[in-house]
Amino acid sequence: MAEETKTTAAAASEAEVAVPASENLETVVSEKEAQNLPEPKKVEALAVEEQAVEGGRKEEKEGKIAECVSFKEESNKIEDLVDPEKKALDELKLLIQEALDKREFSPPQPPAPVAERETKAVEKKEGEESNAESTDLPEEIPLPPQPASEAAKEENVDEKPSGEDEAPPEEKSETAEDIKETIVHEVAPPPPPAPEKPSEEETPEQQQQQLLPPEEISIWGKPLLSDVILLKFLRARDFKAKEAFAMLKSVISWRKHFRIDDLLQEEEATIDGLDKVVYIHGVDREGHPVSYNALGEFQDKDLYSKAFADAEKREKFLRWYIQFLEKNIRKLDLTPDGISTIVQIIDLNNSPGFILFKKELRQSTNQALQLLQDNYPEFVAKQVFVNVPWWYVAYNRLISPFLTQRTKSKFVFAGPTRTTETLFKYIAPEQLPVQYGGLSKEGDAEFSSADSAVEEIIKPASKHAIEIPVSEPGTVVWEVRVIGSDVIYGAEFVPDAEGSYTWIVQKARKMSPSEEQQLIFYSFKIGETGKVVVTFENQNSKKKKLVYRFKIKN
To answer: Where is the composition biased (Low complexity) (predicted)?
Structure first.
C-alpha cells in the first residue's frame, strides 16, 4: 500500500459513477486507475469509462445539457406502500406497542448476584420442608399415666439373680420417640413439592411497575410510533418487522447510554476549525439539505491535534459530531409529505493517503460511519464522494464489508476533474458553494440562493452568446462561471435606439484556469434600453459547462 501512494497525481480518478445496489464499489475507477488494478477490474472499469465517453459525445452532438440525474426519496405515505410493506408496518407497530405496555424499553433492574440467588433458593426450600414436617407431626406425643403396680413390675424385672435363666423379655412400653417414629412411617407421604417458578418472586418495584401506564418514548422529536420513523427502520432491514424491532430497541438503548437528550441541552462542544470540516449549506435539487465533509482540512496539524490527539479528544469530537447530527435531524420535516433525509458530500481534496495512514482519523471515521449505519437508519439519501484520488478504491475495499448493500447503493464517486460536473447533477449552481464550482458565496450582497441560475453548454471549438434584455434604465449585475479553461470572454451593450453606438463593457480576454478567477462578476449602469450581449469562444475540443444569472436594479 505504501508503494501505491507514491504513484503520481496524474493517476487520479476521473470517472464518476453512481453505484447501483447490485454492483461492487471497486468498479468505480477511471481508465488510468484501471491500469494499476488486476485484469478483471480493469476490463470492468474500461467499460464504464467508454460508456461515459459515448454519453458525452452524444450530448455534444445534440448540443444540449443532459437531463439532471437526480433521485427521489421513497414515499412515506401509507397509501403508496405495497401490501407486504403495510403488513410489516402493522406488525412492527404491534411489537412496539406490546413492548411499551410492558415497559421493555426502560432499563431493567440489575439482577441479584448468582451466589445470593442460590442461597435464597436453598433457604427457601429448607424452610418449606421444615414447615411441612412441623405441620404433620407434633414435637412429642404425651403418654397416658401407668398404674403403680405395673410400674413396680417393670422395676423388678431387672433385679433377677444372675444364675437363673433369663426369661423372654417382656414387651416394653413404647416411648414417645418410638411412637413418633412409627407414626412417621405410617403416615402417607406428603405430596411432591410444586415445581419451582423459573423466576423469583416479584419485587415491590416490579409489582409497582406493572401498575404504571405504558411508556411514552419519543425519538428525534417524534413519537416512537410515527410512521415516518418506523419506515426508516423497516427499510434498513428490508421490511422484516422482527429485525427492525430489534434494531429499534438497540437504537433506543444506545441513545439512553449515550445520553442524547442531555447532549442536546449541552453547549456546543465547539473545536475551533471544525465548522470548516462539517457544515450544512443549501439544498439539492429535490430539497434535501446538503452536508459537506471536507476531510482535507485535517491537514492542518493544529486542528488534527485538537480533534484526535488522544482518546479524550476523540471522544469529544465524536460527541460534537453526534450533537451536530441530532440538531440537524430535528430540522428535517419528519412527516409523510416532508423531506426527511440529507445528502452528504464527502470531499477528499488534499488528502492523498491521509485517511489510510492517519490511524486516529481512520478509527474516528470508521466509528462515525458505523454509528450512522447502526443508529441513524435511512437519514442519508445520497453520498457523493468528490475529488476522489486513486488510492480511495483500495481504502473502500477495507470498509466495504462493514457497510450494507443498501448503504453502498447510495454512493457516487467523482474524480477531481469531474467534481463540479457531478455535483451539478444533484445540486443547482445557486446552491453549490463557490469552492465546488457553484455560485453560492457567504455574505453575497447582490445574489442569494433564491436567484436561480441558467445552465448551458458551450460546444467544442465554437462561439456562444447570451443576451440580457434591459427594458428600463438601471444597473445590470451579472455573474458567470465556465467550468473549464481555454475560453475567451467578452461583453458589450447594444442600445435599442437606431444610430446608437455599441458600448464595449468587457474587452475580450482569455479566462484564467484558476478556480478563484473563473467566477466572473460584473456591474454596469445603463441610462437607456437595449441588451447586454456576453460572448464566449471555446478554443478547446471539449465542451464547456456555462452557468450564469443576472438582475437589473433601478
So the answer is: 7-23
Distance of CA 418 to the CA centre of its chain: 27
Task: Give the separation between CA 441 and CA 479, rounded to whole angstroms.
Answer: 12
Q: Are 521 and 455 in contact (CB under 8 A)?
A: no
Q: For the domain that residue 546 is a member of, what is the CATH number?
A: 2.60.120.680
Same-domain pairing of 240 and 290:
no
Which residues does 242 contact at the CB level (< 8 Å), separation at least 6?
95
Query: Tell me, what CATH number does 316's domain have?
Result: 3.40.525.10
* CA dist list (Å): 120 to 116, 117, 204, 435, 454: 6, 5, 17, 71, 80
Task: Order across the sheet with 487-495: list the strands.
Answer: 462-470, 530-538, 487-495, 503-510
The verdict on residue 49 lying in a domain is: no
- How many whole angstroms separate alpha carbon 336 and alpha carbon 348? 35
Shared domain for 321 and 243, answered yes or no, is no
**Averaged over 241-249, what is the pLDDT?**
96
d(CA 98, CA 90): 12
Give the rounded distance of the alpha carbon of 222 from its chain centre: 17
Same domain, 471 and 509: yes
Q: Determine the pLDDT at residue 104.
A: 87
| Stretch among 128-137, 397-406, 413-422 having the lowest mean pLDDT | 128-137
Task: Confirm whether 45 is domain-assigned.
Answer: no
Look-up of cell digits 435464597: 120
Boundary of a domain, candidates 252, 275, 309: 252
Q: Domain range for residue 508?
A: 454-553
Read out DSSP for 144-164?
PPPPHHHHHHHHHHTT--TTS
| Beta-ladder partners of 481 | 519, 547
For the record, the C-alpha cell of 157 comes out as 424385672
**pLDDT at residue 546, as a whole number:** 92
At residue 424, the 3 state secondary structure works out as helix
* Count of domains forming the chain: 3
Of 89, 92, 93, nearest to 75 by C-alpha is 89
Q: How far apart are CA 371 and CA 322, in angstroms?
A: 9
Rounded to whole angstroms, the Cα distance separating 120 from 99 reads: 30
Strands (E), 221-341: 222-223, 278-283, 289-294
- Higher-scoring residue by pLDDT: 77, 17: 77
Same domain membership, residue 478 and residue 372: no
Q: Which cell goes with 152?
A: 413396680
CA–CA dist 154, 159 (Å, integer): 10
Beta pairing class for 487-495 and 530-538: antiparallel
Cell numbers for 204, please give them.
415491590
Angstrom distance (rounded) from CA 231 to CA 225 = 10
Region 300-307: mean pLDDT is 87
pLDDT exceeds 80 at position 493: yes
